[in-house]
Predict the structure of Acyl-coenzyme A thioesterase THEM4.
Amino acid sequence: MGDALRAALTAAATAVASPAELRKAAAAIRDAIEPLTEEVRSPATLSPLDDMGRGIRMFNPVVGPGNGFALPLRFEPDGDGVLARATLGPVHEGPPTFVHGGVSALLMDQILGQGAIVTGRWGMTAELTLRYRRPVPLHTPLLLTSRMAGAAGRRTTVTGAITTEAEPEVVLVEAMGLFVSPSEAKTASYFGTVRTASGGETDGRLGHARQDVDAASPALAPGPAPAE
Ligand SMILES: CCCCC/C=C\C/C=C\C/C=C\C/C=C/CCCC(=O)SCCNC(=O)CCNC(=O)[C@H](O)C(C)(C)COP(=O)(O)OP(=O)(O)OC[C@H]1O[C@@H](n2cnc3c(N)ncnc32)[C@H](O)[C@@H]1OP(=O)(O)O
């Protein structure tokens, strides 16, 4: 489904078609999704395809395979950090032929967060700073990298960059993120009503199911919540 949605978004952004052809395709899309809108999960119920303990979010807009806007980005270990390879297309365009700056920020938010998670720490984004040094080209294999730069209490600082695969020494975007693991009180107030698809409780803390993490997927492996 995610692949079909991605194909639809790209087709919509690139098709050279008449208004009649576009209306016909739009009607077919509406017909196709109509049966899927009859019974839907509540906003505080996770998808049955999600597994917080293993860091699997099927509809995350960056890494979720089921989300049509997601690439989806996949992480690989990179020394003590993380990297991801991506080639962006017409649905990510800002200035003609270049990536939208907000899309770069979206991708870096996720990979910086992952850079904290692979060190056994995690948190919500408290600060995100980007320096756009060169425009990021579309249709070009890119490298996104991140690495933890510092940690204190519940705060984790992570730095990263976007480059092309062809010229990894030329930094296009520099990024810094501060991730703060929420207090017990904030965690309860934000996520206390969230339930798994089978009705189980989850406070969303990555790492509660750390023992279940597939050793073959170390880049997705969550760590325990940092101590206070
Ligand atoms: C089933 C539920 C699922 C829930 C999942 C939740 C989180 C998931 C975590 C990881 C996600 C997994 C993948 C990784 C990729 C992620 C990328 C996307 C992540 C996001 O898309 S996430 C959404 C955007 N994000 C927010 O929506 C945060 C809004 N924000 C707040 O909700 C609070 O702000 C919070 C909770 C951050 C802190 O609240 P708090 O009460 O727990 O902590 P407190 O204020 O006591 O601060 C403790 C120490 O951090 C320092 N500190 C705090 N904030 C600071 C700031 N902004 N700048 C500088 N320092 C800061 C203080 O100065 C103090 O430092 P010190 O200890 O030295 O005094």
